[in-house]
Description:
287 residues, alpha+beta, Immunoglobulin-like, C8orf32 fold, 2 domains, seven-stranded antiparallel beta sheet, five-stranded antiparallel beta sheet, 6 helices, 20% helix, Papain-like_cys_pep_sf
Amino acid sequence: MKIEISHVTRYTYEEPATDSVNELRLTPRTNYRQSCYHHEVWIEPVASLFTYEDYFGNRVHSFSVSKPHRELVIKTKATVVTQDQSSAAQRGLPLKEQLELLQSEKLQNRYIEFLLPTQYTELTEGLLAYAARYPLAEEGLYVWAKQLSEGIHQDFTYDPDATHVHTTVSDTLKLRRGVCQDYAHLMIAVCRSIGMPARYVSGYHFVGDLQGGSADFEQASHAWVEVHIPGTGWLGFDPTNHTEVGWRYVKLGHGRDYKDIVPVKGVYRGSGGQKLTVTVDVRKLDA
């Protein structure tokens, strides 16, 4: 499916800002499930862009604006062709062989970044107690991950006012509510608690045709989880929407948790406050 994304980030400052230094991780990746055919970035005030790949292979654009400005606008536009992920996972290795691979030194060395706990995904007693509710499935780790994703969707209430960007898994377990970032961190922590590599994914979710044909609804960037199934590879699950990742999903990048893959982050010099406005438009271009 061909999908077009427009993303506008606008910072408005109470007093002129100077020496603004920023990083953008807003370029869709090209992988086995999607291909990015076009991507543009515009900055106002005009700034030179420096591009590189970070440690996790995410495309990064960095820039700085030295002169005083009352507004900073970042616009990106991309065209991506997506497809559903392979159904081969359903024909994976037996659970015993999967667990043997998980425990192998080769796999642990290769994916160590996605096995260790982080600031957002600490392995607390509360997390381990929650993970115990999801024993390993005899059918294999794909079925277990699917059941975990569905369980998180059922166990927690989606509430955009309940949490914030710094909410940890411990906070989420106490509140029993949150947003996509919180659902993703929780699933990642549970996966890592059994030794399964899991990573945080940032991107977009096309839902236009699910809104009754109306485009008059607020859209936003999205977050989900990729888990490494031994013998199969990385597969995406979205516990927020109770589904596996398919053609509706456009991946920007991945990391250990949200901190690694913040879409827009930066610092500036100024004495006043700021207002942030983000506008996202995700459209299907053809059938």
